[in-house]
Amino acid sequence: MSIFALTADDAWTVFSVAAKHDPTDAYSKSIPATGYGPLPPVLAIGVPRKEDRLFFGDEAMEAAYETTLALLAGLGHRIIEVPFSDFYATANLLYEGAWVAERYAAVKDFFDAKEASFHPITRKIYGGAKSLTAADAFNGLYALQALKQKVAPLIASVDLFCVPTALRHYTTAELAAEPIRENSRLGTYTNFVNLLDMCGIAVPTGKRSDGLAASATLLAPSGKDGLTACLAHDIHAASGLTLGATGWLLPAGKAEPPTGPTGLIDLVVVGAHLSGMPLNDQLRDLNARFSRLAQTAAHYRLYALAGQTLPKPGLIRSGGKDGAMIDVEVWQLTPEAFGLFVAAIPSPLGIGTIELSDGTSAKGFLAEPAGLEGAKDISHYRGWRAYVESLAA
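User: That's the sequence. What structure does it adopt?
Assistant: C-alpha cells below.
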C-alpha cells in the first residue's frame, strides 16, 4: 500500500493511522508506527557499487544520484557501497513464475470472462500465467528463499539503503516501442522490495541538469518506516525544493512525532556503539531508538583501551577537578532488550550510572579501573568520534 503526500511529515501522519492490523485480512501484520523523531547523527547508508549501478544510458539521472549521495555525506552519514546483483536477481522474480500467477489469480474470474477489456500488455502478462504449473510456483519460492539468505547479511550491514527511484525518464515513444521491457526496468530498484519484506519511501532530491525531476528511494527492513521517513524529511529539506509543483515553500522544522512507547530505558553510549560505529548494529538488532545527543558532566575521563581487537574507549569518573565533558549519545531500549544488551558486555567494560551535563543521569558504559592499564588518555578530544576522526586524518 502506497501513500502519496507532499511532505514526509504528512506521509508519516497517514502511515501512523494506516499501520494497523486488520483481523479480516489473512496477510495483515502489525507494524509499529514508531521511530519518527530524532535521527542518529551518523547513519550507515548502503548504495549499489558503481559497477552495479544501472541507468541504461541516462547520464543526467546518474549524475543526479551522485549529487544525492554527496548530499547525504554532507549531512554526516557514511556511504557504503555493496554488491547489488542479488537484489536485481530478486527483482527479476517479480515478472517470472509464481508472482505473475499471483496477479492472474487476483483477477482470475474477471479476466477469464472479459479478457479483451484488459490493456494489451497487461493481458499478455496475465495470460502467460495460465501456462505456469504448481512446480513453477515452488521453484520461484525456492529461488526467492535462496536469494533472501544471500542478501540478508548485506541488509544487516547498514542502517538503510539509498537507491535511485527510477533509472531513467522514458519517453512515451520509448514505452510504446518496448512496453514490457521498459516498464520492468523502471522497477529495477523497487521490484525486490516487497519480495524481501522491506519498506521504502521515495523523496524528491532536486532537479537534473536538464531540468527534469530527480528522486531517491530509501529502503530498510520491514518496521523501520520511521527511520526512512526521518531521513526523507532531512533530504527534502536540504534539497531546497518546494512542495511538489505547487511552488509552496517546505514548512520549517519537523512535526512532532506521535507519542512513542513508554517504559523504555535510557542508555548512554560512549564508543563503538555510537551511530555509524562498528558495534551500533548491536543496538539496531535490539530495535533500540536514538533519543538525543548529550554530554557527560564535567568530571569524567576518556581512555583508548589497550589490547582490544576492536578499538574501544573506557569512560571513568575522575573524582576530582581534572575531568572533562565527554560527547555521548543516548539510546532507548525496552527492559528486555536492555537486559540482553547488558549481558553481552565484555570486561573491562560494565554498566553504571552516568551523570549528564543537563543534570540528569542514565545507565551507560563505564570501565573498570584495572582495564586502564596501558590505556591512552584521550579526554582532550571530548569524545570517541572526534578521536577516531583524528586517527583517520
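The two ends are 46 Å apart (CA to CA).
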